[in-house]
């Protein structure tokens, strides 16, 4: 990707051969760009977009891609799918599982035989066949085997350069091949027709034509994308046989942009990257805000002053209530005194010790106070009820 394409963050384009990665225990990684003839640059990447295969004829850089994933660097496709596509054998195994889970002949996948460390061909194939040698998306080379004698020659040659990976596939006479691509929600389809007489339809010069996707092809894109956890960017290579059969030959998460819409495709990929970065930043800010609010709540509870004691009930009463209480209390006391006097009169008299002079004075004062109180009560009742004595 070149240009800004609306991204505020700067980005660096570098091949795997110029990248040195160091992963740390805090789930971070440091990347050094060792570009020949220029000053070395060091950075801590937030996002990585794979635009080249980790395995190719230039070398095997799978460990660098895995180190970036280990360092927690975000990717456009989910990390699990990136790891699967780094191993094409495991990716093909997943495709076979998808085909078995789907209805019969819904996803026609090409047949393949895999030799992880080639020594000899274990079964007699149906000729012609295609042999792919080496790892990577395209391997170290492909050749078409016409008959058994040719296969024996190739077998001796492969045995001399072992250990080497070998794949065999049936040869399919094709009219053309179709390339399907998905970038976000946008899908495209192209027909590539070889002009040369090469047995490989995509070798040499080819004519490119943009076509509309069929419902079957849309279903393939959706099914494969969902099976790998939701792929944002990937492509499907389809072989169209002479009899019109469409056979899925390969699936890649690193696609080659084709046609006149390459600039629009780059813009769409840049928008996806920007959306992923913004989404991750929003999540981080939300997490930090929630954590800060929790800390503030805890600090507030710790520093909060103790609650005041409950407010006592009001003891103020009206003068009328006080007067009524006093009157009722005095009347009760007077009635009690009269009852006590009657009861004492009926009982036999007992000898009582003579009180002291001080006791007499206090008793006289008490009886005088009671007489005054009774007089006040009588005058009050007489004023209220009109009872004049």
From TrEMBL:
Keywords carried by this UniProt record: ATP-binding, Nucleotide-binding, Phosphoprotein, Synapse
Gene3D superfamilies referenced in this protein's UniProt entry, alphabetically: 3.40.50.20, ATP-grasp fold, A domain, ATP-grasp fold, B domain
Protein name: ATP-grasp domain-containing protein
UniProt family annotation: Belongs to the synapsin family.
Pfam families: Synapsin, Synapsin_C
PROSITE patterns xrefs: ATP_GRASP (PS50975)
GO molecular function: ATP binding; metal ion binding
Species lineage: Eukaryota, Metazoa, Ecdysozoa, Nematoda, Chromadorea
Superkingdom of the source species: Eukaryota
Subcellular location: Synapse
Region Disordered, residue ranges: 327-389
The keyword ATP-binding is assigned to this record: yes
Primary localisation category: other
